[in-house]
Amino acid sequence: MALRRIAYLLERDRAESHKVQAFRRAAATLAELDPDKVAALAGANRLKTLPGVGDTTAKVVTEALAGGVPTYLAALEETAPDPLEGDASALYDAIVGDCHSHSDWSDGGSPIEEMARAAAELGRQYLALTDHSPRLTVAHGLNPERLRQQLDVVAEVNERLHPFRILTGIEVDILEDGTLDQDEEMLARLDVVVASVHSKLRMDAPAMTARMLAAIESPHTDILGHCTGRILVGRGRPPSSFDPDAVFAACARTGTAVEINSRPERLDPPDELLAVALDAGCRVSIDTDAHAPGQLEWMRGGCVKAAAAGVTAATVVNAMPADDLLAWTASHGA
Q1: Domain 86-332 is found in CATH 3.20.20.140
Q2: pTM for the complete prediction?
């Protein structure tokens, strides 16, 4: 438990993935062993003979078995983010689900059930599983057959987790001509479709505008994901250029929500574009775009951004209970 908690907190704090995986590998190894055997190995100072267990993870396990809070874990727990205040806190409390998340079926780092249980532990009622579509090969996107298989897995996991609910979904690529990168039949089966641009981000503004408008007009598109594609960290990536008045007017008219992407390196859309979307009457979806359990806590940053822009819970689609959300998404294809 201590190893998994450390991995979760490292994910929350944006640690390097190799550190996270070291703790998750050790946790997986120990989970397969009888607790008495683990204790015996710890007592003999032989934990490091196990695959995936090194100096740091062995120390964590030994300290936990001794009845204390491991030093490594205690230090991470002390880095908890500051409490939310005011409108941001009210927004966070109103949100009951997350409409954008990834699992190890595409480029996420954890199994579906592990992502869902982490969301449930945060008090959410549902989590939309939106792994990538096939064109994004670098993210191991799901072709129709793999997506069908995933739907069967989600149904099975939902039986175990009731009343928590995994909503079926996809983050579908908006192709250069504005079509969506998945079979129409499959898109029609899903609970939530997030449509995002992942390629040719430097298209000229008129072409990008036409591309986005075509996707927004699709009856399958529920949420326009991270609309500018910007990256704020490292070498960064500038936002795409498009006509925000035209794009957000189309979102308002079609009932497509504009995502407020909570990933710290995205926080997309920029404040000035979010203001345009709100002025146009768009609804929003405050999502984590989580690729690991600890990243589900990034919802906080999205709520801070949304509250600063004047977003209220009445305009946030994932403040709706699951049945109301699904009625809303179903209305797009009517």
Answers
A1: yes
A2: 0.95
